[in-house]
From TrEMBL:
<dbReference type="InterPro" id="IPR011970">
    <property type="entry name" value="MltB_2"/>
</dbReference>
<protein>
    <submittedName>
        <fullName>Lytic transglycosylase</fullName>
    </submittedName>
</protein>
<dbReference type="InterPro" id="IPR023346">
    <property type="entry name" value="Lysozyme-like_dom_sf"/>
</dbReference>
<feature type="signal peptide">
    <location>
        <begin position="1"/>
        <end position="20"/>
    </location>
</feature>
<feature type="domain" description="Transglycosylase SLT">
    <location>
        <begin position="27"/>
        <end position="235"/>
    </location>
</feature>
<dbReference type="GO" id="GO:0008933">
    <property type="term" value="F:peptidoglycan lytic transglycosylase activity"/>
</dbReference>
<dbReference type="InterPro" id="IPR043426">
    <property type="entry name" value="MltB-like"/>
</dbReference>
<keyword id="KW-0732">Signal</keyword>
<dbReference type="GO" id="GO:0009253">
    <property type="term" value="P:peptidoglycan catabolic process"/>
</dbReference>
<dbReference type="Pfam" id="PF13406">
    <property type="entry name" value="SLT_2"/>
</dbReference>
<dbReference type="InterPro" id="IPR031304">
    <property type="entry name" value="SLT_2"/>
</dbReference>
Length: 267
């Protein structure tokens, strides 16, 4: 899930606008500038104050970010062998049956095969039962935004995280994620959460931590919005395989997604 987030983040570098807050320097002054930026985009003073209360830089996040190298140094066969396991395939097939009606509705609306959605779900968080990260997202993103290497990019994600709270999708206590600020059962960056999130259970909120309908529909929506062709193949070399770049730019990871979906189909 970390590699996917990093691939998405690097892909956004060329299109991320500049923000007013200056990186480096006094961290509290930086937060104050970000707070003003957020309020200018419709986030209330109350949300800003609550989100930034007591926030300090996270040295572990910076250290982790600096030592990252490509996760996909293994071959496809080596990588897939550790991810597409018999246990995951068995569990995925059980969930295809359990959520058959839900997945059928999502597939009809968004055009994305149910097996691929369940494969993504399994790879990202073991179907919502595995590691979704335990770091406070606001602190993580504020730390990375204050660091001058990719400040515009992470300022954008920090503002999106505040907007998630402002919309009432998740309370601050549930804004917990991984080392790049990814959230939920299929690990959405906050900006993707805002752009692609779908309230599919109809409760008025997009909850990608707890709501399986929201998780699966939002995952399908991300692919559909980026050009997914319903009913078309999605193996390597196809147009849909290229659409999957919006999920992860690494060919090894996308091939693993395809393999997992094929195993869930029984092929």
């Amino acid at each position: 899930m970390l590699a996917r987030a990093l691939a998405l983040l690097f892909g956004l570098l060329a299109v991320t606008p500049a923000f007013a807050a200056q990186c480096g320097g006094d961290f509290n002054a930086f937060l104050a500038a970000m707070g003003r930026e957020a309020q200018g985009q419709g986030v209330s003073r109350g949300v800003v104050d609550a989100a930034f209360a007591g926030v300090t830089q996270d040295g572990a996040v910076l250290a982790f970010d600096r030592r990252q190298r490509s996760t996909f140094q293994k071959s496809f066969e080596q990588y897939a062998a550790t991810r597409v396991t018999k246990g995951r395939i068995s569990r995925g097939k059980q969930l295809l049956v359990r959520h058959a009606a839900l997945l059928g509705r999502i597939e009809q609306r968004f055009g994305v095969p149910r097996e691929l959605l369940v494969a993504i779900w399994g790879l990202e968080s073991d179907f919502g039962t595995g590691d979704m990260g335990n770091r406070p997202v606001v602190r993580t993103l504020a730390t990375l935004a204050h660091d001058c290497r990719r400040t515009d990019l992470f300022q954008r994600e920090l503002l999106a995280a505040l907007q998630i709270v402002q919309r009432g999708d998740l309370p601050l206590r549930d804004m917990v994620g991984a080392y790049a600020g990814e959230l939920g059962q299929t690990q959405f960056l906050p900006s993707s959460y805002i752009r692609y999130g779908v309230d599919y259970d109809g409760n008025g909120h997009v909850d990608l931590r707890h709501s399986v309908p929201d998780v699966l529909a939002s995952t399908a929506n991300l692919l559909r919005v980026n050009g997914w062709q319903a009913g078309a193949p999605f193996g390597e070399g196809t147009a849909n395989f290229e659409v999957m770049r919006e999920w992860n730019r690494a060919v090894v990871y996308r091939k693993t997604m395809v393999l997992f979906a094929e195993r869930l189909r029984g092929s």
